[in-house]
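chain below, 629 aa
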Amino acid sequence: MSSRRVQILMALVLTALWGAGIFAARANGHLQFLDRIEATLTDLRTQVRGVQHPPDLVTIVAIDDTVIKRGGSYPLPRADLARVVDTIVQFKPKVVAIDLLLVDRSAAIGDATLANTLATGPMVLAAAAIFPSASETVAPASEGPLAVLPQAERFLLPLPAFADHAEVGVVNVATGQSGSPLSVPMLFRTRDKIELSFPLRVATRALDKPLTIAPDHLMLGDRAVPTDTDFALPITYYGPRRTIRTVSAQSIFDGTLDRAAIENRIVVIGAAVAGGGDFYPTPFDSLMPGVEVVSTAITHLVAGDGIVRDRKVHIIDALTAILLPMLLVGLLAWRRSALGIMAAAIVMIAWAGLNLFAFTHGIWLNAATTLAAAVPPVAVFAGVQLWAGGRRTQYLAAKSRSLARFQAPALQEWLARDPDFLSKPVRQDGAAVFIDLSGFTTLTERIDPDELQDVLEAFHVLIDKTAVDCGGMITSFLGDGAMILFGLPRAMPDDAARALKCSIELYRSVDRWIASLPPAIRGQLGFKIGAHYGPIVASRLGESHQHITANGDTVNVASRLMEVAAQNCARLALTDTLLDAADFQGSPDGILSGPLLTQVRGRSGVVTVWFWRDRNGPNQASTKAEMID
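prediction:
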C-alpha cells in the first residue's frame, strides 16, 4: 500500500474517532456550549419553517393585563378564579387545566368556593418540582429506564382541599442554554415517587386512554408518543404568542365568553400578566407566556404532531457525526483541488438541506454536534492538504526548473501534456543549427580551469538565450558547441526563418562576446556556424535516461557546414534549401556571398552553400584559431 493511501486511511480513522468522541461527550452531558449552538440553530430552522396553524384543540384562558386593568388583582383572588372555572365548566369542556400553583392558603371563603367549583368538572392542577441545584440531576447510582428522569428534591403540590377534587401534574419545562424551552419532561421522580407532567396529565384525561410507560417511549392507549432518551417531549412552536387560540379571562367577567371557544375543548387557565415572571423566549417571540408553552406540549400529545427526537434519531445523529466527516475528508483526499473542495461543499449543503427538510417534517436531527464533528477535522485536513500542496508545488517548481535546464520550455510543456511524445520516431521537416567554438581545445591547455569554466558557462548562457528567443530547442551542448533544432515539438511554417534568424543572432552575439573577453583569451577563440533545412527524424534516445534529438541527412549536412565555413574563411554557412524555405530576400545589415557548390564529408552529391557575414563587423573572415581547429 502506498504511503499516500496509508496517510488517507489514518486521516479517515482519526476523523471517525473524533466524530464518535464528540457525539459521546455530547450525549454524556459534556460540551455544553453545543447546547447553545443547537438552540440557535433550532430557532433558525423553526423560523425558516415558518408559522403553522395548530390543531384547534386547546383554548387558553389568560389572566392577562386586561383583567388587572379592569379592577382585578394579581394573583387572582381564589373567589374570582372559582368564578372563571365555574363559567368554563358550564360550557362543557373536555378538561380544565389550571396552570397556576395553588400551594398557599388564602381567604377561607375563597378557598372553599374554589374547592367546591373544582369538584364540578374534570380538572388538572399544576404542581412544581423543586431541584437541589440550578440544573435537574440524575443520581449516578440509579439503574433502569426511569433512572434518567429528572430527580427532584420535592414537589410543591396543590393544597389537599384542591388536590382532592382534581388530578395533579408537574408543570416544569426544560430550557436550553438560550433560555428557550426546547422540551417538556413527561415524568419526574423523587426518592420515593414518580409524578406525571402537567401536559401528560391533561392529555391522558382529555383522550381518556390509559398511559403506559415503555423503556424508551410512552403509550397513550395504542398510540406511541416518541420522547427523548430522558422521557422529555421535544416541542416546536407553531408561531408567535396567541397562535394557539387564546381568550382573556376578562370576557368571563364581562359575560362575553364565546361558548364555542370552550365546548368539547381542552381549556388551560394560566397567567399572561406582564411582569408575572412566567415568560420564555422562543423563535417567534422574545417573551411567550409559560401557559402557551405548556399548551403547545398538550397539543403535541393530543394531536400527535410533535417533533421526533427519540432513540432512533440519536442513532442517526451518531452515524452522521462519524460518517459525514469521513465523507468530507475522503472527498478532499480524492480530489486535491478545487473539485474536491466543491464536492465537499456540495455534500455539506446537501446535509444542511436534508437536516432542514427533516426538521420541517417533524424529525429533529442534531446540527451542532454534527458541525462540531465535521468542521475541525475537515479544517485540519484541508490545512494539511494546502501545506502539503504548497510543498508539492515548490517541489514540482524546482523539478520543472531543473527539467527546463535540459529541455526547451515549449518542449517541457508539451511533454507535460503528452508524456508519450516521440515514444515512436517521427519523420518531418525541420531546421538544424550547429555552432562550435574554435581554438577552445588549445585554450584549455593555457588558462586556469575555473576561468575556463566561466568562459564556457558564459558561452552556453548566450546560446541558450538566443535559441529560446528564436523558439529553438537545444538538443545538446557538445562541450564547446551546441545543436539547436527548429521543428519540435511540432513542425511550423516559419521553422526555416527562425533558424536563419537564430544563426545570424548567434553570429552577432558570439562575435560581441568574444570581443569583450580579455586579450589573452580573445586572440585564441573563434567560432563557426552551420545551418540547413530538410527532412529530419525526431525521436527519443536512451532507456532509463532519455533525451529528445533528431538525426538524418539534414542534421549531418548542418554539422559538416561548419567545416565548409572554416575552409572558406567564413563563420556562417547556410544552404540554399534553408534560404529558400525561409524566403530570404537579403538584409541591409548583412552580406551574403556565394553560391558555392561543394561536397561535404561523409555524403555523396553536391550542396549549394552561401556564406553570411555582418556588414558592420570586421572584414577578415576567420582568425588563425578558426583556420586550424
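Residues 134-141, 402-406, 619-629 have pLDDT under 50 and may be disordered. Residues 225 and 502 are 89 Å apart (CA to CA).
thats it, cya
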